[in-house]
Amino acid sequence: MDEDDTEIGRLLAGTGVSPGAAYGPAYPVVGNIPEPDGDSRHDGDAGAERDRAERALEQVAADLEARGVQAGGEAQEVLGAQAMMARDPGLADEVAALIDQGVTAPRAVFDAFKKYRDLLAAAGGYLGERVSDLDDIRDRTIAVLTGLPMPGVPTTAAEPYVLVARDLAPADTALLTRDVVAAFVTEQGGPTSHTAILARSLGVPAVVGCAGATAIPPGTPVLVDGASGDVRLSPSDQEIAGARDADQARRAVLSATTGPGATADGHAVPLLANIGGPRDLDAALAAGAEGVGLYRTEFLFLDRETAPSAEEQEQAYRAVFEAFPGGRVVVRTLDAGADKPLAFLPPPEEEPNPALGERGVRLFRRYPDIMAAQLGALARAVAGTSAKAEVMAPMVATVDEAAWFAEACRTAGLSSAGIMIEVPSAALRAADLIGAVDFFSIGTNDLTQYALAADRQVSAVSELQDPWQPAVLDLIALAASAATAAGKGCGVCGEAAADPVLACVLVGLGVTSLSMASPALPWVRAALGRHTLDQCRTAAAAARSATSAGAAKAAAWAELPGLGALAL
Ligand code: PEP
Ligand code: MG
User: Fold this and answer.
1) Domains of the chain: which residue ranges?
2) The most confident of 18-27, 153-162, 421-430, 462-471, by mean pLDDT
3) Distance, CA 435 to ligand 2 centroid (Å)?
4) Looking only at Cα atoms, what is the longest distance across the chain?
5) Which tens digits make up the pLDDT trace of 476-493?
6) Is there a catalytic annotation at residue 493?
7) Could you give the count of Cα atoms lying within 13 Å of 126 in the half-sphere of its Cβ?
8) What kind of fold does domain 7-29+152-231 have according to CATH?
9) Ligand 1 centroid vs 394 CA: distance in angstroms?
10) Strand 181-186 and strand 206-208: pairing?
């Protein structure tokens, strides 16, 4: 950053978590719309004020409806129901009556919605949960009336925008595609946050932990470098062209390595894709994934009042199995709780530390029927396809949990049952756990969070959320060597596998397959293909003998000479 840049505030810096360069207008996600002034009165023309309110409600309804049509499926139903609420005649009458008493349109909308909101909240249950939908319509209508930017994340755009937010939840972004979002910039979050995961799975550049991002004025042209973490405001034409050229040169190097994953001396390392559902399959196939190493099934359950039906689950799972004839498809059972809250499966009590609460496999012990239904749907879905289904549970901590899950898989007729290694206790006692299951898959995002006691959602501790931490490398080595000794596989499906340098180290630690968001596959394929297994082992040993994450990375780099060509 040079001095000029800081002086005029043109350059913000964060952590690059999804490589590539992108340029577009900033679209800051707006939080709550402020409550309109309670004392303000309109100028006496009630008719004009009523028209204004009516038009604003209709504009909001039409916009919600259009977004629904574009998204299709479940989202269309949800948005269509919201549009109907905005067109509710009772609500319109209430707004008109308040305006006739002299209240301004924004305040009338606020008060009329309040009445409905209180009624729904008092009703509780399903109706109570509609309060946030109502608040969204209210805020959108007030935004139209007052000229404030529209709250929420737009899912259509004339030109792809740079989404700027404090942080993003999976549900905020479920409808986004690359045609709409050029890049993500968030003020919070670390390399394993859901913003980072989503960006990598969409293949768009992302910068997280970027202080000052939410102050970027809407519409400001922004150049985002998802590798260095630089966010340049109002860049010159020369800067834009330079960033694009550098990006293209890197991509040319990548496309030179193709085929199944292997080291330079032919040690095979299957390269698999992390997916959230059938909609990610095209990207996985296009990037040459040899199978799926992590199917995060909870995306099918997000934003739902009830679990998806057995048929709906079966259909989604079958689409994935059919995409990889003869290939491996590793499915993770529903991972609810903590950073992936599901409306229909709340933890039974308020938890002060949700990441340490009833999440993942622990929730299944409370709701075994939901797990049995999912395992049943998976068994039916794979029947008649040639895919090799491997099913694994998240957040397993003990041998008992591993054995309980494996037994449930067998009962459902699933032949390969594994567990994720995400909890340090599971890595430390991997030699015991491997006896209960068929394979391991290391979730380095959670493993790092728990090993370093650093919440993956809190950017203030993002330095600790680094899988290069030697303690994390030691835990990975323990799990991989226990699996090797038992003659079983040990993959990595956390974000560490998507880091081309760390991927070489993981292979050197004894990991047998790597699974990542599809856009990372070419990078990892190229890095592995430029080094022998021995070089990877030497790099792993060097990294493990370091005493900090930075030193571990530097030590590994020094042993991996082929990385230079990738200009990482
Ligand atoms: C992990 O924790 O590394 C992982 C792959 O699971 P998730 O990121 O979905 O928690
Ligand atoms: Mg996890």
Assistant:
1) 7-29+152-231, 46-146, 268-566
2) 421-430
3) 22
4) 83
5) 999 999 999 999 999 999
6) yes
7) 3
8) Glucose Oxidase; domain 1 (3.50.30)
9) 8
10) parallel
Q: Give all strands (DSSP E) within 211-355, no chain letters.
A: 221-225, 230-233, 271-275, 291-296, 328-332
Secondary structure of residue 217 in the 3-state scheme? coil
pLDDT of residue 220: 93
Would you state the pLDDT for residue 16?
Answer: 85
**pLDDT score recorded for residue 6:** 38
Interatomic CA distance for residues 80 and 76, integer angstroms: 6
- The answer, yes or no, to whether any atom of ligand 1 lies below 6 A from the CB of 298, is no
Q: What is the pTM of this model?
A: 0.70
pLDDT the model gives residue 2: 42
Ligand 1 proximity of 445 Cβ (cutoff 6 Å) = yes
| 128 three-class SS | helix
Please tell me the CATH code under which domain 46-146 is placed. Answer: 1.10.274.10
Pocket probe for ligand 1: among 445, 457, 511, the residue whose CB has the most ligand atoms within 8 Å is 445
* Whether the CB of 296 sits within 6 Å of ligand 1: yes
Identify the residue whose C-alpha is closest to ligand 1 atom 6: 443
Q: Which residues contact 45 (CB under 8 A, 6 or more apart)?
A: none
Please provide residue 104's backbone torsions phi and psi, each rounded to the nearest 5 degrees.
-70, 160
Instruction: Give the ligand with the smallest distance to the CA of 448.
Output: 1
Fold exhibited by the domain 268-566: TIM Barrel (3.20.20)
Residue 73: what pLDDT?
56
